[in-house]
Structures
1.
Amino acid sequence: MKPIQKSPVVYVQTNEQKRLNDAREAGVPWKKWGPYLSERQWGTVREDYSYDGNAWNYFPHDQSRSRAYRWGEDGLAGISDDKQQLCFAIALWNGRDPILKERLFGLTNSEGNHGEDVKEYYFYLDSTPTHSYMKYLYKYPQREFPYLDLVETNRRRSREELEYELLDTGVFDDDRYFDVFVEYAKADPEDLLIRISVHNRGPETAELHLLPTLWFRNTWSWDKDETKPALHQVAKGTVQIVHPRLGDHKLYCEGDPELLFTENESNINRLWSKPNLSPYVKDAFHNYVVSGQLEAVNPAKTGTKAAAHYHLEVPSQGTKVVKLRLTAKPAEAFKSFDHIFASRLADANEFYDRITPASLSEDERRIHRQALAGMLWSKQYYYFDLDRWLEEHEAHPLTGQNHRYARNSEWFHMLNNDIISMPDKWEYPWYAAWDLAFHTLALSLVDFDFAKEQLLLMLRNLYAHPNGQIPAYEWNFSDVNPPVHAWATLFLYKVEKELGRADLRFLEQSFQGLMLNFNWWVNRKDPEGKNVFAGGFLGLDNIGIFDRSSPLPTGGHLDQADGTAWMAFYCQNMLEIALVLTDYDSMYEDIAFRFLEHFLWITYAMDRIGESHDEMWDAKDGFFYDLLHLPNGDAMRLKVRSMVGLLPLCASTVLEAKGQLLQHPRLKEMVNLFKKRHPEMLKHIAPAGDSFIGYAGRRLLSVCNKKKVEQILKYMLNENEFFGPYGIRSLSRYHLEHPFMFHLNGQEYKVQYLPAESNSGMFGGNSNWRGPVWMPVNGLLIRALLNLYQFYGDDFKVECPTGSGTYMTLFEVAKEIGRRLSSIFLRDADGLRPVYGGTRKFQEDPHWKDYILFYEYFHGENGAGLGASHQTGWTGIVARTLDLLARIRPEDALRVDKAEMVGRMTREQIAG
């Protein structure tokens, strides 16, 4: 009898997936237009031409309406093309504000009692990966916006006090505000429909001036060879757009609004009391609408900036809708407008229904979708030509002009000119290398191609330094971020391989750049060649007793437990990549062994044979610490129980029983030789040798052997230490009553548990690693537990929480951490979201409570959101966490590829 043949499963692609495939395979420019406009260009390093490097003061918010930007543009709920040649956003005036609302307002680093902070309420509600449909909400007060009150009150408050927020000012009392929803839908790649819906939530009819605004990024003022583009009115409600590279487009405005025109050029007279080069300048619409200066706009109806002026009277609880269409094609602008919008929204719903686990609750699905929407809205065009910027500062090191200060002078090779995933488009409107690696975990749920492009971007010649360093962020490209790019690269490769599309070209291309970066780490951050690493703050800002990026007040140097663990982790990732490539090219065998050998020596350096006091592992405490080397040759452990001591858990890799490591002859020969030469060292580190074979015959490469894992987890899973109700805290709660103190020359240095905001100005004071919960490192710890579970299986259980009498497998512990992280955003038994703490408006109001903000970090005790309010960036990995909780089962976790994915995906996500 013939066996029954099962029909293959046929996956019907969603319309949005077809667009993604067309963009990848046929070059159809579905992603040409998107939310690539920054939300703050003022106060950035790029726009800073000061002599002292004070970017915030050189270009403040007050100048942003009048001063043309050099390197980018910003706006409210805006979009642009992928080279930001043409921009679109909205402007608003309620009849009371002192200025036209064209961009978000926030405090500078010196104005905020906890550093810079946006003081507005806005939400990224929806987006597909090709931006065929997008939705954004901005809440605009009907009372006068309290600019001065926010600045002065926050400036008076100490670091021990809470921030003064916009809701605290009373400006939203009695619901006197507008909900302004901005939606975009694409009829085709060059045909964008725009719908703006204004809802009056207040008790009375209210007036609103709405100005959908179109403008060109000013390139002509900086480059005299640049052809100046033009906007001009060609019919009622119609703007003709002419650009030498972008081509011709039209903006159609429903309802025959008044069309205003000016130039996107600086108002030199207002800024510096000098004559303007043109009577029509950047802030003309403010002067026209707010100040009543009719002569401010160009009566010839032409310019490089244009707006449709809608003067709306919105009844109480009523809505007014404005429709526009930006297109490169002749069109009956509004004939099929509503039908196209309905179709694109249906496509978006179909796409998210397909990729979202069916078992998620309605609230979980809401969190999942808004997290991914935030990731997609946080894409931004980033332009920075360091060669030219340094010349303009007269600080280029190769031209003999470097007679004044300018940051990043050693990065003159750099030219950034791409769409990049930003941590937060207001607070951090510049990329950060290690943030970006985490972004790709969430982005790969919706757009694999973009996720891979982001990782490759940082390794390109025009980004990475010729010495191999990956740029950190624009404030100091030479700062050092944790080396997580190899891990993210391997993660994406394994997910695609599991789904039938192993991208070896991506893996090999990444590996070449990562090799250069790895060598930079070895040469620069282990100067003594002892396999122990420094690196500075390594993304953990104020976690140490000293500023780890500055010279130590004690003299000497630090051996960093996290820096060394990161490098062990890096070795493991590079070893795994090399092993994959070795299957296709034997030349990688020697390279694979080099990473294996390096990992072994790093692991040994962290805890050598014998009782020593100059290594990071403290056998008595059962924890890893930073090691301070003093100038006189003495060494001491800085016994702060922090995330620094947990991160060594992450350096674990499982190898399959079939001999993934030993199936290649040359590699096997080198491994056997190493074992013969260094038998004592191998016995001392994590499981090695035939007596340490784990589940299904697997081998484990880990910084932590079983005993160390047990000891560290006793701390990590203790609710009076790291194990908070909403995830793993960055600093042990033990230090609340027992702060770590260090006295030097009459000065006291102290690390104390602070579950909320920082009370020091270290690293600007706008982030805190001394207690709060941070999503990315929690994600890494979950990955570590799943990896260790693959080796130890169900037989290895730990008490969770410590002291509870309840024992769990490492898989169950990982899921429990994931559950606690997810609960930050989900409604609890009382219907409240921990992320919003005691803010009643967000907890109770039907027009607020289901709009989610993805904060930078979270209160270590109550889960309230802290820091940057729109750092969907790495906090967006909560979408991955929800996938994990919904999809992964113990039998899946025992499969290496499945656990590495941190949750399964449907084939639809990369179908085709």
2.
Amino acid sequence: MWRIIRRRLAIGFIRSSEWVLARVGRRRPYGILTLELTGELAEEGSEHRILGVLRRHTADYLALITLLRWARDDARLSGILIRCNDVQASWARLQGLRRSLERLRAAGKKVWIHLERAGVREYYLASAADRISLAAAATLDVTGLSSEAVFVLDALEKLGVQADVVQMGRYKSAGETFTRREMSVPHREMLESLVDDLFSQLVDAVASGRRRDPAAMREALGRGPFVASEAREAGLVDAIAYADEVEKDLIDACGGAATIERGARHRGASPARVGRHTRRARATFALLHIGGMIKPGDSVPGREGTSATGAETVAKALERVRTRRDIDALVVRVASPGGSVLGSDLIWRELMRVRDAKPVVVSCGDVAASGGYYVALAGTPLIAEAGTITGSIGVIAGKASLRGLYERLGISKQLVSRGRNAAMYSDYSPLDDAGRERIYTQADAFYRDFVAKVARARGLTDDAAVAVAEGRVWTGRQAVERGLVDELGGLEEAFAAAKRAAGVRADEPVTVERFPKPRRLWRVAVDVNLPHYGALEELLPILPSLRFVMRERVWAVLPFQLRFF
């Protein structure tokens, strides 16, 4: 069991601002815990400070699985009711959360889930419950899995922008967004394999949870959406009811005398009391988040956690982790599609320096691909969920020529240069053969180094490393089979591995300190967030890539973003 201090966690997304941190203080007897899971389940919570005094917290995935861990160890608790609606989380976080629910059931707790606004994500979680109920007027919006690849070549041509991209690895299709109108054969082969495996994981999990034949469940999941009566007739839910009726039924199922504990008051305690209690932990582990695009320089905060991880910010944090004698191990949570090759390599180097001093364990989140996988290679062990999107061992390089756009705007440029390739990076001229050869040489050198690092870190022969590279993207389950990942699991398994490596007993609590430290609010105030909804949101996944096309030369980045419907 592990506890969290130093950066206290507010469980805001389950509609409570009370602390869920330590087993302290007296509480009235109760038997049922109720939670509401809705909205963004952030990979990394945020805490903004004003002059180091006032703080604003947002909750995260770690806070929730910590709560569920304590719930399953609580002898007073006999049941848990979760209202699960519009959960915004991707596959790996959902798998870790579902595993926590399965462990609650295995501990003898009744787990009931009530749905009102439910799709594939919510139903996947609910299938781990003893009982699923659906509101009478609700729709179970389960329609299988699909993914979309976006291509912007025609839009760029209309704007007068020409993208010139070199890819290392036949599956490294990130540049195809800008240079093609449809998927190439390798791109489609890779995406078909990913969706097949993820859908198989979905079907197997739901069929097991509902005790149904997998073939029948596969057929049922493709027939949606379902109105409430159809969902019950198909055996997808157990009851049609309102939330208050479900709560009363659970009280009866727990003996009729159970009282309700709402949300995060479970295990709650004041910050001062939490601090006194958790200082008894003998070991301290650092937890470092690497999320969003990877870049040189400073990290960029986002709506929930980090939108871009800066190598300089991470290096400063890791220097503190490496030199502090009271930190016994480092757990790194990687949730990044990659980005700058330089930024990725600088972070990898700092992680290896920490590894020379103390254990480093890596836990992969929804995506740890390309540059994200590059930095994850420092982990021993390297742990991923079955649905983690990983691999993508390859690089792309290139530039964008804006001459056509300038001409449409009535802008012209004249270049005066010295040196054969002095104008190679000008946005006014396309690459010539000599420039393309130089960019290819850069990309090839980085790709060879990437593959060599994979071979050394994963104990593979050169030929075996090349066979799993080529820019090919894998699920976590596929990556384990190919030696790219050590084991399947999430943050809880990563902390267990860190305990073993640091010589800490499995049942001994540890203090977890987060890195990097939160930024002061006055530095965050100037950050501008783009709208959450509307047509612009469809372009958000490719905007970071467009920025890198304009500013960076060589990238290790995931070739697409998987979004499931």
